[in-house]
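Rotation project, supervised by the postdoc (A.L.). Task for the rotation student: set up a whole-complex structure prediction and record inputs and outputs verbatim in this book. Inputs entered:
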Amino acid sequence: MSGPSATHAHAAPSPRALRIALAQVAPWLGHPDRNLALHLEQITQARQAGADMIVFPELSLTGYFVRDMVPDLALPSSAPEIARLLEAAGPMAVIAGFVEESSRHRYYNSAFYGEGGHVAHVHRKVYLPTYGLFDEQRYFAAGNRIRAFQTARFGRVGILICEDFWHLSAASIMQAEEVDLLVCVANSPARGVEGPKIRVAETYDHLTRAYAQLLGAVVVLVNRVGFEDGLCFWGGSTAVGPDGQTLCQAPLFDQALPLAELDPGELRRQRLVAPLARDERLLLTIEELNRIKRRQYDSGPQP
Amino acid sequence: MNQPAHLEVNASLVTEILCRFIGKEIQRAGFQRAVVGVSGGIDSSVVVYLGARALGPDNVLAVTMPYKTSSDATRRDSQEVIRQLGVRSLDVPITDQIDAYYARFPDAAKLRLANKCARERMTILYDQSAAFGGLVLGTSNKSELLLGYGTQFGDMASAINPVGDLYKTQLYQLAAHLGVPESILKKTPTGDLWVGQTDEGELGFSYAEVDRLLYLMVDRRWRRQELIAAGFSADFVTRVADMVRRNHYKRRMPVIAKLSHRTMDRDFRYARDWGT
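Outputs recorded:
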């Protein structure tokens, strides 16, 4: 029997496109019950839309300017609140931000990745901005790991939190980790209103597009919206494919839950066009960094 | 001096951010309404336009509080703003209470009178805020806040201030975008504190000049030598830098003598929007 289906009989069944929901929300500042409800509501909506993963912004369970509330809001990654989110998510993976209390009673600005009822990875923000309007090192301990992790559906995934994304070394480590998906969760406040776009939003746009192409990976940025103490979080969450093209784009300022659909063949195609990660010379980089380390740390006074 | 390019703002983007700010901050305090003292000047006009846009004209109460020396132009321009927007309005002249008080102190300097008027207006706005069920919107711009050109606990007092991060020259751009009447855009800035008083006459420099200097000094952190090399006179730089420093107390809450381990705003640190 001949027909259109017969022409495809020899091709491997193409995997279903994965969908990532970008939960651009406005968390309540220091109101964990309301934030938990907000997360559950978004999880329900994302599941209805057929999402395979939902990503919430930085500190989505607490709000940003947590200051002296840090010890009151902190949770271990084994907390029942997080288990409840994962249970509600069912087969959908979840990335969300929280104040993490470690077993040594240190507090971190963290984001977890969980699926199938358990937390598979926690990233602790490494670069805590403490300049200008930011004061994070006063309240948080800095993470000391930048690592990707293997997932069943999304390949190798890396998480960075806001300021981490502005450090080239963090992106470079993620490239060496050979991530397929790089997720940045952010709480970026608007500043710079002289041009056609918010200045800081423009920089994020450049970084997102550049990293996607340089890493040959999908890059997802989820930034919150809403106000805290006069600061306007601008949203504008986005997903960019490895070719630098926008997969989905949330609006500025408003809550939204856009879906990014990942073309399963695109990673392969882009890595043929530009095999940058393949050609990286990791040992050369390490040697050069070691030389710089010897120069900076092993001799002479600090600059 | 021409308006330098770096003081330009994207007026529609700024309007969008400020309207959302007003709406959100008022809502999280448990209100839907706002009260603004309207003087017929550019600052308060911009704030009423933003308030009306953010909350709807019915939810904004514009209060005019003339003193006997207030000019006719002040009254006329205030009325024009109120008429154009269709906001609610209330006229509360302050002459009787001010004059009753100064009958005991007939030799008071005019600056005392000016500050007293500003504080009288503040108490009226806060009282009307309780009656109307709305928050007081502030109208102090960045130029005034930096130079300390305002009355502490007077016109500088408010619940939320949408325009405090905009220089005067930037407010003009916003005003034009919002459709503030031409007569307000064109008139010389004045606190209307006494007959013939103008801001620029009293300060001794124009907003265009000082905004350019403040922008480079404060926002861009140019050094003194760099400012002088850019054409500002050394005296002008010194005078403005001194004003910014001397008036810093007006921008802060009163200093608290520390005794315990947790003192307000020093090591008892919470966001104002705590819990909302």
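Student's summary: Chain B has a mean pLDDT of 95.
Supervisor addendum: Residues 110-132 of chain B form the longest helix (23 residues).
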